[in-house]
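Ticket #301: bound-state structure for geranylgeranyl diphosphate.
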Amino acid sequence: MTLDPNQHLTFQAKFVEATLETLLADQALPGEQVRPPRLLAAMRHGALNGGKRLRPVLVMETANLFGRADDGVLHAACALELIHCYSLVHDDLPAMDDDDLRRGQPTVHKAYDEATAILAGDALLTLAFDVITGEAVHADAAVRLRLSRELARASGFGGMAGGQMLDLESEHRERTEAEIRQLQSMKTGALLRYACRAGAILADAPEADIDRLTRFGEVIGLAFQLADDLLDVEASTEAMGKATGKDAEAGKATLVGLWGTVRTRDELGQLIREAETLLAPYGSRAAILSALARFIVDRTN
Ligand code: GRG
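RESOLUTION: The complex was predicted; output attached.
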């Protein structure tokens, strides 16, 4: 195992890809009738197109911190990635961000059509709940129920989808720092928070550790968003594999817009220090998680 977070992500992402492949096979499961080829192809386009797999790898590494690494963890991790992929497919639609490029490739509605992209997003979202409730995820049905409910709340109207609503309402409108923090902690932060929390729950960690990892997820969630806002201002479309400069174009208030890049980098430094303090009790066992937190801040796409 390597401590280079980039290489480690690439290594772990292969397991995520392989599991997503099997989940998105053309064979219908019991209770399903057929998986229509065009819908399946669009779902595969949205999910198997080279994402960094940061969220599932966070689930895997958090579970690993408490001694669990198996196929059930991988399935839970993939459930979260399916939700993330659905959100990107819908976010790219003309009615939302109207993007032609995602992960360096045509967005799903460009490669297929809008109706197919809407259905592909719906079906990825639904599949996530099929996967997270699978018996392999945890032997105890009560834990599977907890993970499922928390996933619904992280991604639904009080989480990611709600954050997207608040973000859409932000266009060409003044927002206070507290309002921006709130919408970002819902839109982007909720899934990253869930990733770290779910890993600890999957591994039956004590509640105090689940709380500690939840705070770690919140801290890296905010760091992820600040880094993303900086990249939107400073990085090229080629480096990002998607259009940049979109926030300013849409007149969206961001923390980088409020603070400027110098203060934003300073805040990022403080968040990384807090993340490291949270991981300190786990010593070298948390080296990968700590490296991933740094990667989030230093990433270039
Ligand atoms: C449509 C319900 C609904 C929600 C959309 C997350 C989101 C809400 C929209 C994405 C818009 C966006 C670009 C937000 C910035 C942060 C973000 C989620 C970036 C993409 O995540 P990465 O960098 O992407 O982890 P990869 O491609 O590596 O998976």
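RESOLUTION NOTES: The two ends are 23 Å apart (CA to CA).
TICKET STATUS: resolved
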